[in-house]
Amino acid sequence: MTETLGSYIREAHGAVNSGDGPQFNIYYAAEARLLEQVSRRPRAIAKEDREHLAARFVPPRGMQHARNRLDETNTVLIDGLPGSGRRTAALMLLHELSDAKGSLHELPDTSDDTATMALDAGDISDGDRLLLDLSEVDESRYIAVQTALSDFRDSLVRHGAHLAVVLPHRLGYLLRGELKHLTAEIGRPSAQRVLITHLRHEGIEPPRSELDVSGLTSYPPQVPMRDIAGLAHRIRRCRDASPADRGFSDWLAESLADQHDQTARVAADLASQRDGRRRALLLSVALFHETTPGTVLRAANTLLGVLSHPPDPTPRLDRADLYTELSDIGAEVRPDGRVRFRIVGYDRGVRDHFWTFLPDIRRQLRDWFDTCLVDPSLAQSDRKEAVARFAAQSLRTARPEDLSWLAHRWTSDRAPAHLVPDAAQLLALGLDDEQHGRHFRQQIYDWSTSTETGAGLRRVLVLVCSRTMARSHPDQALVRLHHLARRSTGAVGARARQALLDLARSDNRLYRRLLDRLGAGIAQGQWAEDRTLFLELADPVRLMGYRSIRESLTSCWYGVLRAPVESWAAPLAGWLSAAEDLRHRALVLRVLTAACDADVQVSGRLYSAALRWQYAGPGASRAETVSALLRRINTAQGIESYPLAV
Question: Does any domain span residue 566?
Fold first, then answer.
């Protein structure tokens, strides 16, 4: 009993949209799912996330040596075993530095709008604190970065900036000898100390005797530090949802339940279980754990169909019912009507086994999951958990393309609207993955620059870039949102423009970067949208004391003033109003007159628009502002001003 993605909607459970109009309920459902995920993500670089992390940070062995290297050389290369918290240590080293100048941001790891991925000194501003995560790069990228690092470090020193690099431990043999003095190796901090620190900030003060229980001492000793933080998060959730008579030992036991390794038991059970239908039922329960019996049955029948499994010729009433079949595979239906395995952690063991030891059917498993999620009867909470489980297996087995394929399919013109939150969640999970995050940043760039990307996918990309990517890689998010704003129309275009402007306004560095991009785009004349974006973004006061800002503003106004007057007259009024203040007048008028470039026709149009602004409202300051503008225009054209004869 299989289902395929078609061009029709069989039944609607809520609002459905088959066109390009806004679907706010679906959009907000997707946004809510991403916001929940953001609250638990370990890789965010936004200031509030860093402050949250700093309060819970336990310095590892070697941290002081790393501080010394960064202080003495403006650069530190962080090495250590995977899972030891290398990225967090690098981020905290930068976070500890003064933020009086510059900003803390991560260097791009994709070749956005350029032909190279090597280090670019143009990414450095005075006082910047830069993070470069190379933990998962390949050999060629690692070698290229080291080649460019010498010149890049010279620029760091000139700008008073600092750089922390997370090294790929597995490629230690490729580290150049002249860079080894910059290296600081960190050790793994005490997992128990990390857990205690996180718990204390959640208002949980467990007795040490309860921390030494067998469940915690059997926790995998080399589990990544992010999993320790995840354990603390689960303990807090258990506390919040538990009755008053339950204590820390209960919360801990429940939080550790899913960590039990049942790999050997699952392998033994499957070795003795040769029946294809039972195996399909096993995987269906594992992937759709704690859903209804009907959901599990539909998933099992769909899997059999996708794998072209021969049907059972036995009459239906001669076969066992679902209750018996579930019991035979070690599953049960709980009083709440949900199906789960009796053995804690068994579901994860089943999923791991199928994706690890049946690699030849991974593509069919993707198609099976696609068909299952098309069913609109599956509740949002069940969909969210199933998407997370499928994504975890695809990423663990190095198949990020399965998530990209599904996200593209689920946002096509023919896809049901209820798949939009699932597509957004898949991309967000991919972006958060340490090993494959770059794959998704590059894929989203390719989609955002393609004219063939559909409106549904663009809508999801705007959401994922603004809510997920912007918190860890804001520069790359800005580039992608800019491309989406240029190429999108209607409601999607409006969302892309607003998300882009909000991101650029949130940080002076991003504001400067978007102005630079708009200046280049306006000069090329390819995108009319760049002029609109500039007029919405540009602030006649913000950072006007910086020459680079004035140069970017002048470049943008140069192109804008040569467009029809009605397209820029209203924004110009805002600039002239700012120039009424003597503190800002000189710089504002300097930019506007420089943008005319002594062109008589353009200068005349600017002056005429200014006169209309002057007469539109009372006040001597308006006349003074326009007179000052005229004097500057005359000076730029070589016309000497004379005092009036009396």
Answer: yes
